[in-house]
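User: I've been trying to design a sequence by hand for this structure and keep getting stuck. Would you show me what you'd pick, starting by listing the structure so we're on the same page?

Assistant: Good idea, let's start from the same input. This is the structure you sent:
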């Protein structure tokens, strides 16, 4: 088995994402199950957070976790989005998350700037782009653009967890695609700070 093949500039998913997936999997399964999932994917279970891995390999791992948990890949991706916020904070990226701002709307507006800063450390990063529109006291419309297909459930989980972290509970509904963007209705369900 190998660690997976490294990929060139502008391609792949950083190992930090795989490590978050491993954290999610071993929280619900045991270490042997995670190792078996990796073995079926043709890699060992050691991933370097700052190394890029092929998108296909990561999605194979997501499928493997879904099979072991007897759930859907969409559910695993949503759980991964939720896990991503706390996992990256614990891995030393917490100050960048804190710098996003005091509330969910400000944080979502700052995601692209955050990715620019992260790109200084992870030069092969090809982050998604986020836009916000229709902001009101009840919610907003989030527009997500990515060269990777199928990650809308991860965005749902990420926004849900980011809202909780910032004291703004939300419901997030994927409305589908409009042009080149996935759109999400984000509704504030708790007390919203002005």
């Amino acid at each position: 088995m190998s660690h997976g093949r490294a990929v060139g500039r502008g391609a792949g998913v950083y190992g930090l994402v795989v490590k978050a997936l491993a954290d999610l999997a071993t929280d619900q399964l045991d270490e042997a199950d995670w190792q078996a999932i990796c073995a079926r994917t043709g890699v060992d279970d050691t991933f370097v957070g700052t190394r890029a891995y092929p998108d296909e390999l990561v999605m194979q791992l997501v499928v493997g976790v879904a099979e072991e948990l007897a759930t859907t890949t969409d559910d695993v991706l949503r759980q991964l989005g939720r896990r991503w916020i706390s996992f990256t904070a614990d891995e030393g990226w917490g100050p960048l998350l804190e710098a996003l701002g005091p509330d969910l709307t400000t944080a979502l507006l700052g995601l692209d700037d955050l990715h620019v800063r992260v790109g200084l450390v992870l030069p092969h990063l090809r982050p998604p782009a986020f836009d916000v529109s229709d902001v009101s006291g009840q919610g907003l419309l989030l527009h997500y653009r990515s060269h990777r297909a199928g990650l809308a459930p991860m965005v749902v989980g990420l926004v849900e967890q980011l809202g909780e972290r910032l004291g703004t509970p939300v419901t997030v509904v994927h409305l589908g695609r409009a042009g080149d963007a996935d759109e999400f209705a984000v509704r504030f369900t708790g007390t919203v700070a002005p």
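That's my pick for every position. To get oriented when you compare it with your attempt: The chain has two domains: 13-71, 76-188. The first helix runs from residue 15 to 28.
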